[in-house]
Amino acid sequence: MSRPQYISRKQELPLKGDSTSIFLQVIISISVFIFAITLSGVLSINTMLYNWNQSILGSLTVQIMPINDVNKERATAQTLAHQDKAIELLQTVKGIIKVTPLSNEQLKELIQPWLGDGVNINNLPIPRIIDVKLAADAEIDFADLAQKLAQASPQASLDNHKLWLSKLIDFADGLKLIASTVLILVILITSGAIFYTTQMSLGLHRHIIEILHIMGAKDTYVAQQYGKRMAWLGFCGGLFGMLLAIPTIFFIGSLAVRIEGGIISDATLGLVDWGIIFSLPIFSMLIAMYTAYYTVKRTLQKML
Fold it and tell me: Are 110 and 208 found together in one domain?
């Protein structure tokens, strides 16, 4: 019994042995590597901004400056009295859902990194901190609240985080703009490389294409062959670039985790973000395919 013969469509254009294939794969791999690193940065910044909005904008801080007195016990008692007055006022404000004074241990944990382990914090006048949680739909006049706090407790000061947070958000938006510009440049450079590589290949195979036209082949047929070949090169190059980028992203993330303070550590990638990164080989395949296809059709209209 003879084996079944499988019929495969013959490729008239020798594109598989084209000398530009390796060059194009390297270009696509480098582009996808840079694209993946930059894209992970943009997605991380988006996550960081979202976490800031959830955790910081829904709260404010009241600070009670310590009373200076030779008698430490009396100074501490007076400072706590001012804290109690501030708490009583805050609990009456509409839109505030929770008022929590920080304990001595929590205050020490906040101050210790700034002063070092060799300093006895118990001997220092430590400000009291009150953490205030706001309702999602809270509409608070912060200027009026600050004035009322000053009347209830002259040692109290209000910080609604908006001043320094707005600067951080502006900085993050600037980083996103730079990263987005890099992404656009990477796409344009990759498309340009595919465009000129395809034109070069068309010049090398000009005589074969002319014979195909004489035999009745249309521009669309030639463009489809180039599109399929470039799609495969785009996918392979994109896959290799993505595989190189993933350990690099994890390495950068491990460096960010080591930074204390919780600001950079909020920049994480979720499942959807990883799904976008893993789809980059498909994205590079589509760009390579459509760029090559329309390049061939446009060039052949001028050549023949």
Answer: no
